[in-house]
Every structure is written in C-alpha cells, then in structure tokens.
Design brief:
Order of helices and strands: HEHEHEHEHHEHEEHEEEHEEHEHH
Strand content: 15-25%
CATH topology of the domain at 6-194 and 235-264 and 302-317: Rossmann fold
Number of strands: 13
Helix content: 40-55%
Largest sheet: 7 strands, parallel
Number of helices: 12
Distance between the termini: 34 Å
CATH architecture of the domain at 6-194 and 235-264 and 302-317: 3-Layer(aba) Sandwich
Strand order of the largest sheet: 3-2-1-4-5-6-11
Radius of gyration: 19 Å
Length: 342
C-alpha cells in the first residue's frame, strides 16, 4: 500500500480501523484490490459475491493472513438472505457487484438489467434496513456515450449506447433516490477503463489490456476491434481504490452525487497495443483488426476536477507506471504458469 500518500493513510486508518464494511463483488478484480486496502487499513470486511465471474483464490490468501478481518458470503445480491447477511452491521457498503461488459449486455440485456439495476436497488434497500451510513456505487463512464465533447464532465446529459450503460445510469438514479427518499448517504463513482494486476483475460468479454497481454505472452497478435483510433482514459486500479477510500474519510454528507474516477489522459487503442507490446517484449507482433463492436463509444477521457474538489482525489498511479507494472505482473504470472506445466 505504498501508493497511498502517508497523510491520507493516516486519515483512512482513523476512519476505517475496526469498522465493519461490506464489499459486494469483492472477489472480483476491483473489489479484490479494494478488500486488500480495507484490510490493510484495519477494517473488518464482509464480502458478498456469487463467483459467477471470479473465484475465491485471492480472498482465501487474505483470509489466511487476516482471519479476524474478512468474512465471505457466497451468494447473489439478488438473494435477499445472502444480501442481508452481507450488509449486516456494515457502516460503509461498497457496491461493485455487476454484470460487466458492453458486448455481453448487447447479447443479454435482460440479465444485465436485472443484476445491475434491480440488484443495485436491492443493495440500497438492504443497506438502509441494516442501518448503514453510506453506500458507494461503482458506476461507469459508458454513461457519457458518444457525446463528442471532451473531456467528459459530470454535468453532461447521459447518452447510453448500450444496455450496460443504461443499467449503470439507472443505478446512479437509484442512489440519488435512496438519498432523497430515505436519507441514506450515497455516491456514484464513474470509472474510466480501470486496469491492473489480477484482471481476467480468459474471456470473450475481457478488457483490452489483459486481452492484449494474454496474446503477447503467447506470441499471438492481439485483436483490436475497429480502427484502433478510438481513445480511452486507461486508469490503474489503485486510483479506483483510492477514490473509494476517500469516501470513508469524507466528513461531509453525500446525497447521490456522481463523480468521475480517471487519470485524465487520453490514449488510443493502437498506442496502447504498441506500449504493451514493448513492455511484454513482443514489440514485433502486429495487432489484427476486427469489425467494431456494437455499443462501443469512440472517444473518452475524464475531467477529474469535481472529485478533486469534493473528495481530495489525485492520481496516485499514473497510466504509464501502471501499464509497466501490470505488464510485468502479467508476464511474471505467465512465466510461472509455464514453469508449472514443465
């Protein structure tokens, strides 16, 4: 946790030490990194996850090291019994459980809506009933759609281009409604293309960075959908975790605000492929192009002025540093797997 500024670490420890918190989707990529930080800062953490897109391997390691600080509830946020057990006694609820991926939402919009929208409503209801102080919702930059204005500012009208985006916007509205109607403090954090170690690569819906690194490690050409000139704000997972931790230390009230979480740097997918190829020692492997996917936006980059002013957010791990560290982690993992098969 050396990426957390010392003065902030002191504030976070004061706010979280011995506090009971719940992380929905805590066995997943971002959720797992958040659990690491919460445990390191002294919180007692309950994770609820149905393991539909994750496993318990990382949580088991944390639990072995800190058995008194981590409890796991296997179940869906759509299951009232499991959800009630997960949020029981929690002061803070970090709601990360979701069915991700724009392409998957285009293929199965009904399932995406039930998990992401109805599921969020149930989390909010359960948190309110359990007496939680604050719910932090993991929203998405996909809410901005193809609005050509850059950078993306929270005051822009949502323009969802996919069922996934629509379901995340619905979650934001529900958070604001639960603050207005029930007095539950809520905040929605719009993530911009979060990446980092432990992000899943073995799926047709894998995000670009783990998919590219997986291809390079195997000597394959990564697939770029579309021209590759589309741009994104690739944001290391430490920044997403930092934003969530700031909500715990925030002393003012929160009532459904929406804030961007990004790095504020615009990078094309073609440039991303070049950089990752270099970091993975496969700079001579050229990407292949496939038709662009339905629901994808062309350009995206965050304005982080609002979250800086509201919560004191800063970029704790810049994109270039994050890409280098993520590539190194991934290649080391692949090398270890190869030795295991030898």
């Amino acid at each position: 946790m050396d990426w957390i500024p010392p003065q902030e670490r002191e504030r976070f420890t004061s706010a979280l030490s011995n506090q009971l918190v719940c992380v929905t989707g805590g066995a997943g990529f971002i959720g797992g990194h958040l659990v690491d930080a919460l445990v390191a800062l002294g919180a007692r953490v309950t994770v609820i996850d149905d393991l539909s897109n994750s496993d318990t391997s990382h949580l088991a390691t944390v639990m072995d090291a800190c058995p008194d600080q981590l409890r796991f509830v296997q179940g869906s946020i759509l299951d009232p019994v499991a959800l009630s057990s997960g949020v029981e006694g929690a002061r803070f609820v970090f709601h990360l459980a979701a069915l991700g991926s724009v392409p998957r939402s285009v293929e199965d919009p009904a399932r995406t809506w039930v998990v992401n929208a109805t599921g969020t409503m149930r989390v909010l209801s359960a948190a309110h009933k359990a007496g939680a102080r604050r719910v932090v919702f993991s929203a998405s930059s996909s809410a901005y759609g193809n609005n050509p204005e850059l950078p993306k500012v929270e005051t822009m009208a949502p323009e969802p281009e996919s069922p996934y985006a629509a379901s995340k916007i619905a979650g934001e509205g529900l958070c604001r409604a639960w603050s207005g109607s029930y007095g539950l403090e809520t905040l929605s954090l719009r993530y911009f293309n979060i990446f980092g170690p432990r992000q899943r690569a073995g799926s047709a819906y894998a995000a670009a960075i783990p998919a590219f690194l997986s291809a390079y490690s195997e000597g394959r050409s990564p697939t770029i959908f579309g021209s590759g000139e589309q741009t994104r704000d690739f944001t290391h997972v430490n920044n997403a975790v930092f934003a969530n931790l700031l909500t715990c230390a925030h002393e003012g009230s929160l009532s459904g605000e929406v804030l961007n979480v990004g790095a504020g740097v615009r990078t094309s997918v073609n440039e991303l492929a070049r950089v990752l190829g270099s970091h993975s020692g496969a700079s001579g492997v050229e990407p292949e192009h496939a038709p662009e996917r339905a629901g994808e936006v062309m350009h995206s980059v965050s304005d982080i002025g609002a979250i800086r002013e509201r919560l004191g957010y800063e970029v704790v791990t810049p994109m270039d540093e994050g890409l280098e560290k993520t590539a190194a982690w991934f290649m080391a993992r692949m090398s270890h797997s190869d030795r295991g098969r030898a």
